């Protein structure tokens, strides 16, 4: 069997591979070794025969030549073809037990004095003979979360409670203001009605006293010397009566029960609108404060 073409970068021609006894008709490739630089190669096989041509039905063989491992030494032969060697360390290095032999980076030579004996994890010493034990005396059972994290959590919780406290207190104060305004409006309506009733009773009693015969006789027997005073009193009484009548008419026009109820309702609705506006503002401030609290808590998680 001849390996006629081994190509991609390098070509090897007319290299024969002896398969032993020809009568066995089995060729073993387990001992086949190919030295080449790292790349992909294709082997085309031709089988020689003395008389007739032997026909075979199989595809070409593709070979991938890899580079050396990190723990191997890269060397080149006379044909400038790369080959790998396992590093050799001194006999005191317990290779494959607690250490491994690594090549030196200074020179690409497989030298015992240059190669390095590297200990596995958990071993130490000149010959990697000592085990490393972890000292758990200084380790804490519960991990310390940190002073600043606890401080930020406490500040965030206090801010949250203060925001809810302010929100509840303001809503309570606004609710009491509306109740007081409604009660004041009702008391004003009651006072205006009682004032009108008392004023009408006084006017009726005065009119009856003025129509009695005793009063008429007293008016007839008034002296001429006091006529000026009587006239002044009459004028004052007329003006007073006019003022009273105007007050009554104004109260009857403006301070009726229905109009007072409408005013009270209007004032109540205005107060409710103001209260809702203030509550919305407080709610927005509360949401913004809660948002800042969430930002603080998220920043705490990164520490």
Report on this model:
It is a single chain. With 303 residues, this protein is α+β, with helices and mostly antiparallel strands. It has three domains: 1-66; 69-134, no CATH class; 147-216 and 247-302. The chain has four helices and ten strands.
In brief:
This protein is α+β, with helices and mostly antiparallel strands and 303 residues long. The chain contains four helices and ten strands; from the N terminus they run E-E-E-E-E-E-E-E-E-E-H-H-H-H.
What brief labels describe this structure?
single chain, 303 residues, alpha+beta, 3 domains, four-stranded antiparallel sheet, two-stranded antiparallel ribbon
Number of strands: 10
What's the pLDDT, averaged over the residues? 67
Number of helices: 4
Distance from N terminus to C terminus (CA atoms, Å) equals 70 Å
Number of domains: 3
Spans of 5+ residues with little confidence (pLDDT < 50)?
Answer: 1-18, 20-24, 206-244
List the helices and strands and how they pair.
Elements: E1 2-7, E2 15-16, E3 39-46, E4 61-65, E5 73-76, E6 82-85, E7 99-102, E8 116-119, E9 123-124, E10 130-131, H1 147-211, H2 213-220, H3 227-254, H4 257-302
Antiparallel strand pairs: 1-2, 1-3, 3-4, 5-6, 7-8, 9-10
């Amino acid at each position: 069997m001849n390996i006629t073409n081994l190509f991609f970068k390098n070509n090897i021609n007319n290299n024969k591979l002896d398969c032993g006894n020809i009568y066995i008709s089995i060729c073993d490739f387990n001992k086949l070794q190919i030295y080449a630089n790292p790349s992909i190669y294709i082997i085309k096989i031709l089988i020689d025969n003395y008389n007739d041509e032997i026909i075979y039905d199989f595809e070409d063989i593709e070979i991938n030549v890899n580079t050396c491992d990190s723990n191997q030494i890269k060397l080149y032969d006379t044909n400038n073809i790369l080959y790998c060697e396992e590093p050799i360390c001194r006999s005191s290095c317990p290779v494959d037990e607690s250490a491994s032999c690594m090549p030196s980076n200074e020179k690409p030579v497989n030298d015992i004095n240059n190669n390095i004996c590297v200990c596995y994890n958990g071993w130490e010493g000149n010959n990697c003979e000592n085990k490393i034990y972890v000292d758990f005396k200084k380790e804490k059972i519960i991990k310390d979360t940190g002073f600043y994290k606890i401080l930020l959590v406490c500040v965030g919780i206090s801010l949250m409670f203060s925001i809810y406290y302010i929100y509840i207190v303001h809503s309570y104060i606004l609710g009491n203001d509306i109740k007081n305004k409604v009660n004041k409006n009702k008391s004003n309506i009651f006072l205006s009605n009682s004032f009108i009733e008392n004023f009408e009773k006084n006017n009726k009693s005065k009119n009856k006293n003025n129509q009695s015969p005793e009063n008429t006789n007293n008016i007839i027997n008034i002296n001429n010397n006091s006529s000026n005073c009587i006239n002044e009193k009459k004028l004052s009484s007329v003006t007073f009566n006019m003022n009273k009548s105007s007050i009554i008419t104004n109260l009857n026009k403006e301070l009726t029960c229905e109009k007072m109820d409408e005013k009270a309702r209007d004032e109540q609705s205005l107060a409710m609108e103001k209260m809702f506006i203030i509550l919305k503002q407080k709610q927005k401030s509360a949401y913004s404060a809660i948002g800042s609290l969430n930002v603080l808590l998220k920043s705490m998680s990164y520490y």
